[in-house]
Structures are given as structure tokens and as C-alpha cells.
Amino acid sequence: MDPTDRGADAYGHDGDGALARPRPPRDPLTPDFAQSAPALARTVRLVAGEHLLTVNPVDGSEIAACPPGERPPHPPKRSAAARAEAARAARPPVPPGPAQPALPLLERQDERERLVRLLARGRSVRLTGPAGSGRSSLLDLVADDCSDLAPDGVVRLDGFHRTADDVLHDLLHAVHDAPLHRPGHDELLALVREIGAVVVLDDVEFGGAALDTLLDATPECAFLFAATPDVRAPSAGAAVEEVFLGGLDRAGGVDILERAVGRPLTEEEANWAGDLWFESEGLPLRFVQAGALLDQREKRRAGARAVDTYGVFTDLLPPADPADPTAAAVSGVDEVPLPSLGEAAAPAPLLASRLTSSARETLRFAVALGGEVPHPAHLPALIGDTHADAALGELAACGLVSPVGARYRLAAGVIAQLEAAGYGDDIEARAHAVAQHYTWWAGHPSVTPERVAAEAGAVLAALAVLAPAATPPAEDERQPVAVRLARTAAPAFAASLDWNAWERALRAGAEAARLSGEVAEQAYFHHELGVLALCEGQLDRARAELEASVGLRGALADRRGTVAGRRALALVADRSGTAPGLLAGLAASAAPDAAQEPRTPPAGVTKALTPVGETSPTVVSHRATPPVLGPPAPARSRGAGLRGVARRNLVSAGAGALLVAVLGTVVTLGVTGNDDAGTPSDRVGVNPTAGTDLDDGSVGADTPATGDARPGTGTLTGGPTDPGPDGTLGTADDPTPTGSGEPTDDPSGTQVPTRSPSQSASSRPPTSPTTSPSRPTTSPSDSGSPSDSPTPTKSEPPTPTETADPTVSDSASDPAPSTPVASDSVTPTPSSDSATPEVI
After folding, report:
1. Is 167 exposed, middle or buried (0-12, 13-18, 19+ CB in 10 A)?
2. Which end of the chain is more exposed for a tag (fewer CB within 10 A), N or C?
3. In degrees rounded to 5, what are phi and psi of residue 810?
4. CA quadruple 800, 806, 808, 812: dihedral positive or negative?
């Protein structure tokens, strides 16, 4: 019964018939005694927008682009009989036991007629009233009155914990027959635009812009919303009528009490009803609960002769509570006092004390689940009583539960009253029991995804209690029950197209797996969240979730899961038009000594952070970074700056950009800080070979091509770059020109020295009488082999006043042994007479 049992796959056989163990033939006369085949994983294939989704509860769902042949046709509309059958299945279950008499709707005839008139004109209406005012009962009557107004009839939907997008999908599947098909947003809007129906939406929890979106998407529908006053109102421009539903008058409250006890009220009871009406503001729910109190009082006054409504004799009733003032009635006392006004205002504890033990246990489970009442079919297994399903009938007759969609919840205000009476003392233990039961039940092969989705309220409530309290299991314990429940229920929610519940289950499971240290399960939940985000078109979130899942599964050596995650990442990259970010990140992290390489900011940032007159921080040579895996970037212009540098030269390009910024600062000092009578044209050549662009830090001056450098000009031929993917030197996406002064990769581990504009001027006279160095020459090479490097020469030794700056040093080697090797240093020496730096 475990859907995650992979059978032969667990032993590496992958289910092939050659290696699988043969099974004995089954005897048709004794089928139950033969060895049964293991339960297979319930994989479901469905179409979600443009994707073909295979829900796999073992390795994670697989998603791919939907082939044209797999695209479902235009979903046809349901017939009137099919719509009626679907509406009947969406109603809450009838409580077991004798049928309860339906109370008439009192003092609501005017509101009823007004709502029908507005809907008949095609207007949308919002019915606003406090909890317990009878909104759901009024909606039922109005829906029956409007059954023949629209071509697609009346559609009843539940708005509890539902968004506008969820309501649109529910409306589509209520009118159209589209099994295993969840259309995309555009296709959904096209389909719901054709629907013409009266949509009754109870317990709506959104308004404003979300409500406008829902109305705009369904121009042929008339909506009847029911909401509490705390829900956001419609926008000012929305064509929605407001109808407020208040409480009953005193006569209406007395009528409800008389129907509950089956006789006219006495004077004392009438006065008590008046006080209750003033305190409760005439809410019908309060009078239904007060009528249940009077009914219990009548039965206790009858003593042992009374027989309760469900056929259980009084000797089988639980012992009376000593604190109950009506407990003396059991011993034969006829006069039982009326409940006090405080007990009538909060009647839940008093009502529960007079119910059967199964009903009280059901209330305790409902309090633990945040008000959700499990289906009556699950109550016998949870409580341990074969007749516990009758407890729902007791609770409904007392007004302690109310229908919400296809299930029941505790009525308004009941959960707070029961918690104050001690019904919430063991919440975690009861939630744990509920989670264990639903884990077994949801994983049973006979349970369909639609049945699991019907119990989504109880399942998600149990996860909400257990997921934040998950802890790492002991060595002899299984994984936390919250992880197992989420892992079992989430695929069923996905297959039933209830993606709101799917997402909530996945997030609760991911939190429980993280707190308990279940890395494999955490990877599964992240993978599913990424697939869900991809189906909804949220590509950034899908990429983040899938990358987290692939990283965790890669650490666990989960080959199947890793392959599924990489396929989904490839689809994300195809949809977004970018390469998967995880592959680039893994390649960058695999680069040798990548963690030791300092990060160099772009040249524009360096100049913005460096004050005028000061030099930038010292930059040392960097080793070449191996190329990062990924598609080649397109060729860009030289003015693109740092953005145009190939990824494989990112570190070297940053260092070169910073050096260019330093040299630009030095040139600025030399031009603007000189006070002598000389003109700048006498000191700066007319054809500078290097300069910095103030916008992007690129080299803006024209530079001779490789092999055109003239001796004596100071123009350097850049060193060769690393071989590209095709084996050539340099790539098409490397915009660094030859001789631009940018640092390049050198197999020897050294960096080609960069010349400043003062060193590369071809016809600059000496600016200081103390130094007269000659221009260094370079030996350009046309072959571009890695052995070529510039060879600076010195015509005279440095003067005693010159000092070497150890912070900026350039070294080069010359293959010719006869050429001496020298080092060049640039030390800015600002002064009042001249700011031109000395060149050594």
C-alpha cells in the first residue's frame, strides 16, 4: 500500500522481465492466498499550459514541452445533468443518523427578492454580513431561484482560502469537461470568457484589484459573493452592488427557540430569549445554539424516561458533569434552571459536556486542526469507535459546526470557546494521530487523488501544526510524520489539479524536512516547488528552487533525481532564453584558486570611489582564471568596457581596468597640476596610445594593430590569450585590442606590464631636469606565440634621487640573453612646481 515502493527498481533491476524474480501463478479459486504484486507508484500525466507534466511521487515530477499530439482538444461544456451531478458531489456530506428538520429562513424575504432581481439583470452582488448571520442559508435559496436565468445554470463555488486564479480554474472545471488539463493563463481567460452562468461564491476572502480581475475575466457571468465585513471591499469602479445582512429581530429569535423545543416559550424563557437577543445582536447562529441548550434542558427534565434523538438511552449517556447545574435532573428533579446569560453567550463548552464521548473527541480533533472537521468516514479510525461517524450529526444539530464548501468546520466563535474550556491542551498529539492516519490513507492504492483533495483541509491543518515542530529523528525512529504526510499527499494534490493545496503541502514538507535534517526529502520538495513555479510561468523562482534541488541531490549522489532536475532546468533556460545558472556557478566554483583571487571592481566604480589627487589601491598580478562553462557571448565593441570582456578573462580584465583608472588619475594630475608656463601640447603627444573613457573605463584611443608597433613609441603588444574552445588564440567575444594596455594571460604566470600615457608618448620632451630616460622599446611579434614579451631597456642608470615603489611592479622576461632585464616603477611625486610623475 506504499506508493513509494519501487519494487524491482530498488534493487537496480529497473523492472525488466529478464532479471525480475518470476511470480507463482495465481489460483483463481484462492486469489487472496497467492502472493500479490507490489503496489506501483501512481504516476499521472497531465497537461499544464504548454507543458506535459508527469507527477512522479518517487523521483520527482518530470516536466517537458507538450508535443502537439499530446495537446488536448477544446474542452466541451458539461450537460445540465452532468452539472447537477457535479454540484451534488461538491456539497458537504449528509450527517449520519435521522435527518434534521430544516429551519425556515426567517425575516430574509426582502433580501432574497432583491438579490434575485439584481442577478436577473446581469448585475454582480456582494452579500456582506457577520459570521453567523445566515449568509450560506440565504445563498442556497437564491441559487435555487436563479437556476434558469443563465445558459450555463448556477455554479456554486467555495472561496475559503482560495485566490482569484483558483476561482477561475474551479469555474472552468465546473462548466467544462477538462480532465487532467490545467490550461495556461491565456487559454484559461479565453475559455472562461465563453461561460455564461450565475456564480455563487461563498466565503470569499479577496476584494479590490483581485475581485476586478475576476469580474473582467468573466464578462458573461453574474456573481453573488458572500463575505464578512473584514474582507476588502470592491474597488470604486467595480460594478458590484452591496447588500448588507444584519441580525434578526426579537420575534425571529423567539421563533427559532420555539421550533427547537417544539412548544411555546414560558414567560421566564421569553425573558431569557430577550436578554440573549440584546447580547447577540440577533445573530441566527446564537439562537440555534440557544435552542440546542433548551432542547437538552427539556430532555434532562424528563429524566430516565427521555430517549435522545439518535436512539441512545439515557443509561448509555456519559455521566453528568458535577459542575453542570442541570446535573440534578438526572436523579429525577423536574425543575432545572435556565442557563445563565454568560453560558448562552458562549454555549460551546456547555453543549459539548452534554454530548456523547465520540462527539467530544471529534471536537478535540477539530480544535487541534484549527477548526477543520474530518470527514465522518475517518472518525471511527481516529476516535476508535465504530459508531463515531454519528458524532457529526450531533454537532450539526447543536450548531457547533457549519458547512464550508464540501466539508464542515467549527462554527464561528466555537474554537475560541472550546480552547478556553481545555479542549486544546493536547493539540500536537492529536495532530500527530491525524497525520499518521492520513499518511496511510492517502497512500493506499484504492484512494483516488480527488478523494485526497476533498480532505485537503484536514491534511494541511495537520501539516501546519507539525511542520514547525519537526525535529531530527532518533536512530531507531522513522522520518517525521509531517515529512511523510507531505510526501504522500502532495502528488495527489497535483494530480487532482488542486495546486493551491499542492503548493501549501510542498512548503510545509520542505520546512519539516529542513528542521529534521532530511536532505533527500528536502531536495524532493524543492524540485516539486520548482516544477510548480515553472508551470505557473514564474521562471526566476523555478530556477532558484531547481538549482537548490540539484545541488542537494548532487551531494547525495542521487542520479535519477539529478537528471530530472537538470531536465527541468534546461526547460527553464529554454523558456527564459538564458543558460542554466547552476552550471555556470558550478564551473566557476571548480576553477583552481578561485576563492583566493580578489575581486576587482569595474573601472568606473574605481574612479567614482577614488578622490582627485589620490591614487587607487595597489593592484597585484592575478593568475588567469580558467574559462567558465557556458555559451559564448556575442562579439561586442571595444567601448563596452568590462561588460565586453569574456567570462574566462574576468579577473584579469578587472585588474587591467583598475590599472587604467590609476594611470588616468596620474595623467589628470600631470595636466592640471603644473603651474609652469609650458603648454600641455609641449608635454603630451598628439597621438596618445592609451586613455580611459570616463563612462565605462574602456580604452578610447586608437591603437596600432599587432605587428605595426614602431620602436620608440612605447606601444606594447599584448600577450597571447588562452586558447579558446576551437584551439585558436583568443575568442570572438574578447574585445580587448592588441596593445591596449589591458592585462592578458601568460603561461609563465607573470603579467605583461602596462604602460602609462606618459611612457607611451612618441615625442615628449623630458619634463624634469633630474631624469632623462629613453623610451623603452618593444619587439612586436607577428606570430603571437606565448614566448613573445616586451623587453624594456634603459639607456642610463637611475639617478640617486629616484626611489622604487614596491607596490606597483611590472616584470618581463626576454628570451634573448644579451638584453638586460629591467623593472619599471611609476611613483607620482606631486609638488607645487610640477605634478608630472618621475619615470624611472
Report:
1. buried
2. N
3. -125, 135
4. positive
Beta strands in 620-734 (DSSP E): none
Residue 590 has pLDDT above 50, yes or no: no
Adjacent-strand bridge partners of 53: 46, 63
Distance CA 488, CA 445 (A): 12
503 in Cβ contact with 529 (< 8 Å): yes
Beta carbons within 8 Å of 396's beta carbon, 6+ residues apart: 95, 100, 408
Convert the pLDDT of each residue in 540-573 to its tens digit.
999 999 999 999 999 999 998 999 999 999 999 9
Cell 623593472 belongs to which residue? 823
β-strand pairing of 240-244 with 198-202: unpaired
Let me know: does 354 contact 405? Beta carbons within 8 Å. no
DSSP code for 699 = B
Return all residues near 448 (Cβ < 8 A) that are at least 6 apart.
Answer: none
Predicted confidence (pLDDT) per residue in 675-708, tens digit: 444 444 444 444 444 444 444 444 444 444 444 4
Q: How far is residue 367's CA from residue 422's CA, in Å, rounded to a whole number? A: 10
Which three three-digit cell numbers place residue 604? Answer: 568606473
Compute the distance between CA of residue 561 and CA of residue 547 in angstroms, rounded to an integer. 12
Distance CA 426, CA 95 (A): 27
Secondary structure, 3-state, 287-355: HHHHHHHHHHHHHHHHHHHCECCCCCEHHHCCCCCCCCCCHHHHHCCCCCCCCCHHHHHCCHHHHHHCC
Sign of CA dihedral 810, 813, 816, 820: positive
Closest Cα to residue 728, out of 720, 719, 736, 740?
720
Strand partners, 157: 201
Phi, psi (5° rounding) for residue 178?
A: -130, 75
The pLDDT of residue 785 is above 50: no
Could you identify the residue written with the cell 480552547? 419
Integer Cα distance of 581 and 166 in angstroms? 31
Read off the pLDDT of residues 32-74 as tens digits, 9 standing for 90 and up: 444 444 445 678 999 999 999 999 888 889 999 999 988 999 9
Where are the domains positioned within the chain? 7-41, 108-246, 603-610+623-840
Surface-to-core class of residue 180, CB atoms within 10 Å of its CB (0-12 exposed, 13-18 middle, 19+ buried): middle
| Cα–Cα distance for residue pair 123/117, rounded to 1 Å | 9
**Nearest one of 510, 527, 511, 519 to 562, comparing CA atoms:** 527
Q: CA-CA-CA-CA torsion for 50, 55, 56, 61, nearest 10 degrees?
A: 40
What is the distance between the alpha carbons of residues 834 and 670, in angstroms, rounded to a whole number?
7
Nearest to 225 by CA among 90, 319, 128: 128
Terminal-to-terminal C-alpha distance of the chain:
85
Residue 31 Cα distances to 26, 36, 37, 40, angstroms = 6, 9, 12, 19
CA dist 325 to 94, 275, 294, 305, 344, Å? 33, 20, 13, 20, 14
Asked if residue 3 lies in contact with residue 39, where contact means CB atoms within 8 angstroms, the answer is yes
Assign residue 517 a region (left: φ > 0; alpha: ψ between -120 and 50; beta: otherwise): left
- Can you read off the three cell numbers belonging to residue 399? 450548531
From CA 797, how far away is CA 503, in angstroms rounded? 76
Cα–Cα distance measured from residue 149 to residue 170, given in angstroms and rounded to the nearest whole number: 21
Task: Please say if the pLDDT value at position 382 is more than 50.
Answer: yes
Q: How many C-alpha atoms does 685 have within 13 Å on its Cβ side?
A: 19
CA 55, CA 495: separation in Å to the nearest integer? 7
* CATH class label, 108-246: alpha beta
* Dihedral angle over CA of 132, 134, 140, 143, nearest 10: -110
Instruction: Tell me the C-alpha to C-alpha distance, in Å, between residue 18 and each of 8, 14, 21, 22.
Output: 11, 10, 8, 9
